[in-house]
Design brief:
alpha+beta, 2 domains, binds magnesium ion, binds 4-amino-1,4-dioxobutan-2-aminium adenosine-5'-monophosphate, OB fold (Dihydrolipoamide Acetyltransferase, E2P), eight-stranded mixed sheet
Length: about 450
């Protein structure tokens, strides 16, 4: 006897239907369209299934009414698991109760690929578990919002420089020497030699700026810091402008302007994402120029005033000290003119007080710590040679850098803005590990 087997019925997509992304549904009100994405969440109520569909551009509620679809589609809608990939067809309707303002009234639905037991449900999970599943965690609404804000900040930063005549120049990742001190270098075997992963593109930008006048690099940098704090990554992204004929004062202005511009760009373009993150937007709207500005000496006085008499002149300001100082302000605060002993060799001495360098650290409000470090650079050959020797650095590897002072040296300045610290502050996130797609930390190298 022949066994007959009939495969379960499957839906077939309607030919010639417009495929739209969720962010575009407003332009298709009343029309029948196809959406494609992943099931984020669902609930049912008798003859209705409410499917939350996400496609990366947004989330929309898709309503499946038993009377509107074939029986097998209604059944399937009731059984598909979170993160199943699907296509859905239906009519776009207004829905004033949802954040999006629209919903889809479903006429057809097909599974592209099933997902069962997706490990990350919308409930709470521990951080270790989420970090181990970072590749899947990225799909959650909060992580999507963070990634979009990060991308918006990168775009705004590039726009700020591109609109002002800067040229984007890329710095190398393999380097023969340190830029920000030798204590936190990653060593790499490089044929018969030792190379280091770059800590900063600055020295290369100083070469490029003599060619182009105004430049910036924007890429990953590496620090082998044995710091397990909420502000430290071993791999992070930094934008580093360098400007010829720009001195300390103007350097401060440009850094402040850049920060204000980037923050306002997120306020204007990322309202939905800030809402997902429950960020207090009023605090960001208040980030307007000018920013408060104090010297290192004044910062020490503020610390003493708050009872931190253990901190003495000449001590570096760590995360706790920065937080305490920044609490006096509701905008980023510029701390300038640090003791020479605390800063790298290349910073220019203050001609009015050779104990100080013409530098700035900019500290974010609300306890997010240092977001910018920068300075005017030493442009005198003899002085720079002295500083290299004083810091015990190998003259030979800096020969090319000294050439920049040998051939047409000019005053120049620049700074580095750490992207993940900026993202942490703007998004109101406790730890920088959520501010980069795949964080690299002392104790984390995967996924
Ligand atoms: O203050 P830093 O070390 O400055 C420099 O590297 C200069 N060469 C930049 C320049 O003048 N072109 O680093 C700049 C910024 C810090 O203010 C902070 O925002 C970020 O980079 N940063 C880190 N971000 C995450 N994890 C770390 N381990 C970081 N170290 C610095
Ligand atoms: Mg610094």
């Amino acid at each position: 006897m022949m066994m007959t087997f009939s495969p379960p019925p499957t839906a077939t997509p309607t030919p010639n239907l417009p495929v739209v992304r969720i962010t575009e549904v407003a332009q298709h009100l009343g029309e029948t369209v196809r959406l494609q994405g992943w099931l984020y969440n669902k609930r049912s109520s008798g003859k209705l299934q409410f499917l939350q569909l996400r496609d990366g551009s947004g989330v929309i509620q898709c309503v499946v009414f038993k009377g509107d679809v074939p029986e097998f589609i209604f059944e399937e809608a009731g059984h598909i698991g979170q993160e199943t990939s699907v296509w859905v067809e239906g009519t776009i309707k207004e829905d004033t109760r949802s954040a999006l303002g629209f919903e889809l009234s479903v006429s057809q639905l097909g599974v592209i690929s099933h997902a069962y037991d997706f490990p990350i449900s919308p409930k709470e999970h521990g951080v270790a578990f989420l970090m181990e599943n970072r590749h899947l965690w990225l799909r959650s609404a909060r992580q999507v919002a963070i990634l979009k804000i990060r991308a918006t900040l990168m775009k705004a930063i590039r726009q700020y420089f591109d609109d002002r005549g800067f040229t984007n120049v890329d710095a190398p990742i393999f380097t023969p020497n340190a830029c920000e001190g030798t204590s936190n270098l990653f060593e790499v075997e490089y044929f018969e030699k030792t190379a280091y992963l770059t800590q900063s593109g600055q020295l290369y930008m100083e070469a490029a700026v003599m060619a182009l006048g105004k430049v910036y690099c924007f890429g990953p940098v590496f620090r082998a810091e044995k710091s397990k704090t909420r502000r430290h990554l071993t791999e992070f992204w930094m934008v580093e402008p360098e400007m010829a004929f720009v001195e300390h004062e103007e350097n401060l202005q440009i850094a402040s302007e850049l920060i204000a511009f980037a923050v306002q760009s997120v306020v204007q373009n990322c309202q939905a994402e800030l809402t997902v993150l429950e960020r207090d937007v009023a605090k960001l709207e208040a980030i307007t120029l000018p920013f408060p500005r104090i010297t290192y000496d004044e910062a020490i006085k503020i610390l003493h005033h708050h009872g931190r008499t253990d901190v003495v002149w000449g001590d570096d300001l760590g995360g706790d000290e920065e937080t305490l100082v920044s609490q006096a302000f509701d905008k980023p605060v510029i701390i300038e003119k640090y003791p020479v002993t605390l800063k790298p060799f290349y910073m220019k001495r203050n001609p009015e007080n050779p104990q100080q360098v013409l530098n700035m650290d900019i500290i974010a409000p609300e306890g997010y710590g240092e977001i910018v470090g920068g300075s005017q650079r030493e442009d005198d050959l003899a002085v720079l040679e002295g500083l290299i020797a004083e810091h015990g650095l190998d003259d030979a590897v800096f020969r090319w850098y000294l050439d920049l002072r040998t051939y047409g040296s000019v005053p120049h300045s620049g700074f580095g803005l750490g992207l993940e610290r900026l993202v942490a502050w703007i998004c109101g996130l406790h730890h920088v590990r959520e501010c980069i797609p795949f964080p690299r930390l002392m104790d984390r190298l995967s996924p």
